[in-house]
């Protein structure tokens, strides 16, 4: 496995598989924060200590075939160009914070890209595990297996009362952030999402718009995750999140049906117009592209658009971001050049489907 | 990202500084943070009341030079391992190492309560290799809770089974203790 393979494809191999409820839930993720017991956290450690952790992982885990996650590839952040770092962030394989910490930061990525193990981020270890569709408890189970595997070789910073000790007090306890990415176009169109978000927040969960700035969701994609990590077991946290996600799925499906019933013609028009823009535009900004892609994806889910694959939203949302566009062009691009290249890539991608 | 002071070491501290209402992003390494007074260490008298973290809504709004004295007093609580002081922790909102948790322990409950909806105790996974005894303790706790529920629901047959499981776990203890003594 080479870095080039992680860079070339916009969507990770696991994304090509449909999971349960994947008309609405794009992916499920478990992230575990872990630290070495006797080394200060990256914020306070000296460079030598962090370098030791980096090389510990390079020597011990690189290439190790962990269960279904074959061949872990080791990538040092300092060896990457700015564009390459950005591509890994856009694929969600590393966090923006890790991309900034160039010196001793590294990541281990599994061949199918379902597992990534960030080293020397805010904590020494950030384990991320993705599954397609709505599979939170499966993701938890698999993340635990991986965690057990690591724990055999590493003395974790763990305390009977406080649990897994992390650099940020918001992660202490389980160290776990469970999250799902959801495509909720009908709840946005009917403006129901605005009154649902505060209600979800009150349950101790966080709703974020993804790819967009702040809470505004580009492409109607939202990330829902737990906020509390102390006092509840991982299973309980996941169960709480699951019940909210289930309700959101039902509400979204219901809103889609209502939209078809009440304004089916308008909806169809909107979907085909978006398809037209994507198929023929010569210049397209990321926000318009995201909106049109969301509409096209809705058209696919509703059975209106037959010759386009469901992956197109995931794929083009990632492929048309600045990092990927510049990686593709093999040079730095101005915003206007990016808008042209984005339009041309989307056109090509849609033509492939026909 | 490089440290904005020395341009040599990587920046390990990232925070927002507010000076006269102007927000500024600060990225420095911990060496420069110490030297340039971004962080207070006991040996220097630099106060950091102008640094705001905002993360936990600590009441820093009223901090003026008169309040600085109170700050100096709370400063003596310092982590022996990573040298982070409690006031630094409040400012940046991050622990420097695992020992910080012991050092600041008595002051942490209110913070965790605020961040974790009133919770202060871990109730989740326990690492297998490190937490042998803990595992058993947790298992016993869970079984006792289960037993209580079964009795409440008058499911006595099932309750008897759980009671036996609890006995077996406790007996394991007795055996190993006896073994230790011989
Ligand atoms: Zn510096
Ligand atoms: Zn410390």
UniProtKB/TrEMBL annotation, chain A:
Top-rank taxon: Bacteria
Function statement: Catalyzes the specific phosphorylation of arginine residues in a large number of proteins. Is part of the bacterial stress response system. Protein arginine phosphorylation has a physiologically important role and is involved in the regulation of many critical cellular processes, such as protein homeostasis, motility, competence, and stringent and stress responses, by regulating gene expression and protein activity.
InterPro entries documented for this protein: Arg_Kinase, ATP-guanido_PTrfase, ATP-guanido_PTrfase_AS, ATP-guanido_PTrfase_cat, Gln_synth/guanido_kin_cat_dom
Family statement: Belongs to the ATP:guanido phosphotransferase family.
Source species taxonomy: Bacteria, Bacillati, Bacillota, Bacilli, Bacillales
Annotated ATP binding sites: 27-31, 92, 126, 177-181, 208-213
Molecular function GO labels: ATP binding; creatine kinase activity; protein arginine kinase activity
Swiss-Prot/TrEMBL catalytic activity: L-arginyl-[protein] + ATP = N(omega)-phospho-L-arginyl-[protein] + ADP + H(+)
Gene Ontology biological-process entries: phosphocreatine biosynthetic process
Keywords: Allosteric enzyme, ATP-binding, Kinase, Nucleotide-binding, Transferase
Residue ranges annotated as motif RDXXRA motif of the pArg binding pocket involved in allosteric regulation: 338-343
Protein name: Protein-arginine kinase
One annotated Gene Ontology cellular component of this protein: extracellular space
EC number(s) given by UniProt: 2.7.14.1
Control of this protein's activity: Appears to be allosterically activated by the binding of pArg-containing polypeptides to the pArg-binding pocket localized in the C-terminal domain of McsB.
UniProtKB/TrEMBL annotation, chain B:
Top-rank lineage group of the source organism: Bacteria
MF annotations from Gene Ontology: cadmium ion binding; cobalt ion binding; copper ion binding; zinc ion binding
GO process annotations (BP): stress response to cadmium ion; stress response to copper ion
SUPFAM superfamilies: C-terminal UvrC-binding domain of UvrB (SSF46600)
Database matches in InterPro entries: UVR_dom (IPR001943), UVR_dom_sf (IPR036876), YacH (IPR025542)
PANTHER family in the record: PROTEIN-ARGININE KINASE ACTIVATOR PROTEIN
Protein name: Uncharacterized protein
């Amino acid at each position: 496995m080479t870095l080039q393979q992680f860079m070339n494809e916009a969507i990770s191999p696991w994304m090509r598989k449909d999971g349960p409820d994947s008309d609405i839930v794009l992916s499920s993720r478990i992230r575990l924060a872990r630290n070495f017991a006797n080394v200060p956290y990256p914020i306070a450690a000296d460079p030598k200590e962090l370098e030791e952790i980096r090389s510990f992982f390079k020597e011990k885990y690189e290439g190790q075939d962990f269960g279904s996650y074959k061949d872990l590839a080791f990538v040092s952040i300092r060896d990457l160009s700015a564009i390459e770092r950005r591509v890994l962030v856009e694929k969600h394989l590393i966090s923006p914070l890790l991309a900034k910490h160039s010196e001793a930061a590294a990541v281990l990525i599994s061949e199918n890209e379902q597992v990534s193990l960030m080293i020397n981020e805010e904590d020494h270890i950030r384990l991320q595990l993705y599954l397609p569709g709505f599979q939170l408890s499966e993701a938890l189970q698999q993340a635990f297996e991986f965690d057990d595997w690591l724990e055999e070789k590493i003395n974790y910073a763990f305390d009977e009362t406080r649990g897994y000790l992390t650099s940020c007090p918001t992660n202490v306890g389980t160290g776990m952030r469970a999250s799902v990415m959801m495509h909720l176009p009908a709840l946005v169109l009917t403006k129901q999402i605005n009154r649902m978000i505060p209600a979800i927040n009150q349950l101790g969960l966080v709703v974020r718009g993804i790819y967009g700035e702040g809470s505004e969701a580009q492409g109607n994609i939202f990330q829902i995750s737990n906020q509390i990590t102390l006092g509840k077991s991982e299973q309980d946290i996941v169960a709480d999140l699951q019940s909210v996600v289930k309700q959101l799925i039902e509400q979204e499906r219901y809103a889609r049906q209502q939209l078809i019933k009440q304004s089916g013609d308008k909806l169809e028009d909107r979907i085909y117009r978006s398809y037209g823009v994507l198929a023929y535009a010569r210049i397209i900004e990321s926000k318009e592209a995201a909106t049109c892609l969301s509409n096209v994806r809705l058209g696919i889910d509703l059975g209106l658009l037959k010759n386009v694959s469901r992956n197109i939203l995931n794929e083009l949302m990632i492929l048309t971001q600045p990092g990927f566009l510049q990686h593709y062009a093999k040079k730095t691009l101005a915003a206007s050049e990016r808008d042209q290249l984005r339009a041309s890539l989307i056109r090509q991608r849609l033509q492939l489907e026909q | 990202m490089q440290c904005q002071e020395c341009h040599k070491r990587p920046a390990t501290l990232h925070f927002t500084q507010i000076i006269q209402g102007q927000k500024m992003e600060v990225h420095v390494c911990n060496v420069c943070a110490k030297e340039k007074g971004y962080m207070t260490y006991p040996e220097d008298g630099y106060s950091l009341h102008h640094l705001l973290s905002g993360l936990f809504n600590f009441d820093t709004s009223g901090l003026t030079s008169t309040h600085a004295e109170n700050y100096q007093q709370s400063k003596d609580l310092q982590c022996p391992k990573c040298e982070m002081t409690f006031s630094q922790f409040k400012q940046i909102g991050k622990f420097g190492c695992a020992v910080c948790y012991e050092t600041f322990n008595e002051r942490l409950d209110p913070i965790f309560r605020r961040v974790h909806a009133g919770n202060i105790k871990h109730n989740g996974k326990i690492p297998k290799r490190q937490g042998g005894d803990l595992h058993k303790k947790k298992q016993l706790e869970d079984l006792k809770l289960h037993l209580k529920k079964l009795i409440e629901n008058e499911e006595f047959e099932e309750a008897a089974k759980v009671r036996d499981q609890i006995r077996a776990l406790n007996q394991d203890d007795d055996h190993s203790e006896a073994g230790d003594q011989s």
